[in-house]
Amino acid sequence: xxxxxxxAPQAASKSRLFAGSAARKPNxxxxxxxxxxxxxxxxxxxxxxxxxxxxxxxxxxxxxELPLTRILLVRRAGAKAPDGTAAPNGAxxxxxxxxxxxxxxxxxxxxxxxxxxxxxxxAYPDYPVWATAVPNDPDFSPYQWHYRxxxxxxxxxxxxxxxxxxxxxxxxxxxxxxxxxxxxxLVPGWDFVGNDDDPTDTPARSSHGTHVAxxxxxxxxxxxxxxxxxxxxMIMPIRVLDSSGNGSYSTVMEGIExxxxxxxxxxxxxxxxxxxxxxxxxAIIRDAYSRGITLVAATGNESSQTVLYPAxxxxxxxxxxxxxxxSLASYSNVGPQVTVTAPGGxxxxxxxxxxxxxxxxxxxxxxxxxxxNGYEFMHGTSMATPHVSGLAALLxxxxxxxxxxxxxxxxxxxxxxxxxxxxxxxxxxxxxNA
Length: 434
Hints:
The protein is α/β, with parallel strands linked by helices. It is built from ten helices and 13 strands. α6 runs parallel beside α9 (about 380-400).
């Protein structure tokens, strides 16, 4: 069992509790994943021996009695185990026996029939369970707490983003094209700082863009490093910030337009400015939005009541940051424009409380500098934003083309409400729940 924010909004689906034969019988329809055995609870005071003969006359046999819950496991007489052999009485609890042969009643119908046997309190198919998808990347379990915080392992059991390719433009500093966890994950991009087709980063300290890209779509289940939110998404690197992380609205505007013209489906902007960027910038945002591109941006790290641009535009999903305990990060800008929050973490005082992702760091060699690929913890709304962009990529891969409003609504409506009830200026709709 994994403790996670596996939250069901509106509590629409609840586990069924059986309160004896007086309880309403569930409406059992054929299952997608057939069970091979039936759980049976006897009326108080009865034992397996008291019911065995009547079960036998109905064509069923007792496989096992679970010692703690006192539930009987029952199967059709002569049914085969998954390996094709007859399963003897006393088989280990939890073994699933063969599904009904063609022409047999369904396991659900059989459970309803067993409930009509005298002495049976209730019967229910013993449906299978399975492990949620957990990648084999060695750093996932010890360091990437932020994925479990938004229920990504459960989401990956539905889709890993490999149903159909989705391209996410990362408008940021450069990206390390040689990083082993980004190998094969990049489509052509552009460098608006160096004005060439090689948006490779040579950071003054550490590559912001490389970290962001790894959160969205690092190569996953490849036995090295960490995981990405969407295993199947592709990254379009667009460099608009210099090695120190500085740039201008005009360059960002060019980057957005380049992404639009080259087929990006999601645009991640872990950047922002405090002043309204002008009508031309706003027109570029509206054009991208009208073309069906999902735009995601950071609210900012100034502990301010003002959300930065472009996150402040209504066409853009504005992402704030939470800490490891799901509280609002003190640095996260707030305001009415906040759409949702995602894990941004904090590396102070404990680096592992930050977001773990791919890294390219400048390292002194004594006679100069070199840049080394690796992994590191970083924190900020910049780190929260790619969680949402990656989630948008998962949705588009799984469900196909969706409007930006539909993507934002689905992500918002399924978020875990934090803070005051409903949408608020701190958390928006809440913490995203993949």
